[in-house]
TrEMBL record:
This is Murein biosynthesis integral membrane protein MurJ. InterPro entries: Lipid_II_flippase_MurJ/MviN, MurJ. It is a multi-pass membrane protein. CDD domains: MATE_MurJ_like (cd13123). One of its GO terms (molecular function) is lipid-linked peptidoglycan transporter activity. The keyword Transmembrane applies. It is found in: Cell membrane. It comes from Nocardioides agariphilus.
Length: 566
């Protein structure tokens, strides 16, 4: 059946908005990689690094636990609805939401700082209770005290960003994290200047109070700056904030009822991730008192590898989903399940057109990628610990992408209760697999074992979520175009497989394969990736993978437009 003009225009609008966000995300990711490089150079990737990484990660986890689900998934449909239905264009509703969020997040942040030792006890392995790890435990608690105020800044940043998204101002939220990364880079450069890279003998040690303050306060300052960057854009979008405390009878109850299931969803998700962090923290902690064996992987290796493999998800999938959600919400609000299923199916194929080739190529480029990013300073002797985790993560990201996008369909239909039960299955699979796999392996394979558990959970989750949504749409004459998706996946996997085989052939024929220098690693990485992309694009044209050409044409158009104006 040919697509209607409105459907094509909606799809083009999603792709165009996604291109704006993806450009900001791409720049943000590159600055994030520089931060990751400096972090490895300064702190290494063993227990010493884990202390700061865990202390600086927990605030984001707690923000997501306490408010992230509501802000990210529930408020956008509600803000869009208030803008279209309220006489004041949603101004009063927006002001009430901002006021309520600021009060809640501020109070919670204060309580968390006071309760930091108990909070960190949830996320740390029992190994940290050993006497020989007392100083390390004190350090991670100190980092938590400095970093837990980030809960407020994370929450307000996401809320204000979603207010802008509801007004179709997608760019600022994607570009603002660059400011955070720049602050973090400055903090780490200053740390290297004043303290230098941690010596090899101290890769398992704690920090001094001055080091804790420098890194902890600097990390929180970066999140605060990220929030402040949004303020001018809010004014430009016509948002005039005035505190409103009249919360009764204003529609907030409906939002919070929808949010109840989303909060439960996030709680389940974060419980699973807390188990992952707890297990990961034990990987490097076990090195203390066991002969100082540096061959151990923990949370730093797991989280930094995850940061890298999330590139296509962050650049393409999140951008598509953020631009898509208002469209899906509008289609769901008017009961047009056929249009909703079609929109979601097309965006799903577009995202997989990027994610699948990346996942297939990842094991080929993982050694050189690890060398370029982490073979610096304090991590130069242990950077190879990243390679296996990088190689294994690609498959998991493919299934996570499917699951992530399908859930946007449930949110647009306000089926948050269904999402909760699906996520219970994902979390249970992740927890069970993580516990079993970590117990069956040694400390050096702690991070890779957790990667395998992550993949298993989203294999299950993507299948369950897809099948449930397909049945729900079929009941209302909608569909996810499963046959089209399967045919597309067969073609894209074949194209990606051939392209990766060609790239591997290039890698095997390049001179200097054993050259350990950064320049050689960059050259190999660039040539192998270029060969893969070139072969894949040629095959995409030959195999008529329209989704690939749509992505390229849209992003190329965004790049040409500013040049044309000049």
């Amino acid at each position: 059946m040919p697509e209607s003009t409105d459907t094509r225009e909606d799809q083009e609008g999603v792709l165009t908005s996604s291109a704006v966000m993806a450009a900001g995300t791409l720049v943000s990711r590159f600055s994030g990689y520089l931060r990751s490089l400096l972090l490895a150079a300064a702190l290494g990737n063993l227990l010493h690094a884990d202390l700061f990484t865990i202390g600086n990660t927990v605030p984001n986890m707690l923000y997501i636990l306490l408010a992230g689900g509501i802000f990210n998934a529930v408020l956008v449909p509600q803000l869009v609805r208030s803008m279209s239905q309220d006489p004041d264009g949603g101004e009063a509703y927006t002001n009430r939401i901002i006021t309520l969020a600021a009060l809640f997040l501020g109070a919670v942040s204060v309580l968390l700082v006071v309760a930091a030792p108990w909070v960190m006890g949830i996320f740390l392995s029992p190994d940290y209770d050993r006497p020989e790890l007392a100083e390390q435990r004190d350090s991670v608690i100190a980092f938590a005290r400095f970093c837990l105020p980030q809960v407020f800044f994370y929450g307000m940043f996401v809320l204000l960003g979603q207010v802008l998204n509801a007004r179709r101002r997608f760019g600022p939220m994607m570009w603002a994290p660059i400011a955070n990364n720049l602050v973090s880079i400055a903090v780490l450069v200053g740390y290297l200047v004043f303290y230098g890279p941690v010596p090899k003998a101290d890769l398992l040690s704690a920090y001094s109070p001055a080091q804790e303050a420098w890194l902890g306060v600097g990390a929180t300052a970066g999140i605060a700056v990220q929030l402040l960057v949004l303020v001018p854009f809010l004014k430009a979008a016509g948002v005039r904030y005035r505190p409103r405390f009249d919360f009764r009878g204003t529609g907030l109850g409906h939002t919070l009822r929808l949010g109840l299931w989303t909060v439960l969803f996030v709680i389940v998700n974060q419980v699973a991730y807390a188990v992952v962090v707890r297990l990961a923290s034990g990987g490097t902690a076990q090195a203390v008192g066991s002969g100082g064996d540096s061959d151990a992987t923990g949370y730093t290796v797991y989280s930094q590898a995850f940061l890298i493999v999330m590139v296509p998800h962050a650049v393409v999938t999140v951008s598509l989903a953020t631009a898509l959600l208002p469209l899906l919400s509008a289609q769901g609000n008017r009961g047009d399940l056929r249009a909703l299923g079609g929109s979601l199916s097309r965006v799903l194929r577009t995202a997989l057109a990027v994610v699948v080739p990346f996942a297939v190529l990842l094991p080929v480029v993982a050694p050189d990628l690890a060398a370029v990013l982490w073979d610096w300073g304090a991590a130069s002797s242990t950077y190879t610990l990243y390679v296996l985790s990088l190689s294994l993560f690609g498959v998991g990201i493919v299934f996570f992408t499917v699951h992530y996008l399908v859930l946007r369909g449930f949110y647009a239909l306000e089926l948050t209760r269904t999402v909760f039960f699906i996520q219970c299955v994902v979390a249970a699979t992740n927890i069970a697999a993580a516990i079993v796999l970590v117990r069956l392996t040694d400390p050096v394979h702690t991070a890779p074992a957790l990667v395998v558990a992550y993949t298993a959970s989203y294999v299950v989750g993507s299948l369950v979520s897809y099948l449930v949504l397909r049945r729900r749409l079929a009941a209302g004459s909608g569909q996810l175009e499963s046959a089209v998706l399967v045919r597309f996946l067969v073609r894209v996997v074949i194209a990606a497989g051939i392209a990766t085989f060609a790239a591997w052939g290039v890698a095997m024929t390049l001179p200097g394969r054993d050259d350990p220098s950064h320049l050689a690693a960059v050259a190999r990485l660039a040539l192998v990736a270029a060969a893969d992309v070139l072969v894949f694009l040629v095959l995409a044209r030959l195999m008529r993978l329209a989704e690939v050409t749509e992505v390229i044409d849209t992003f190329a158009g965004r790049l040409r437009r500013p040049a044309a104006r000049r």
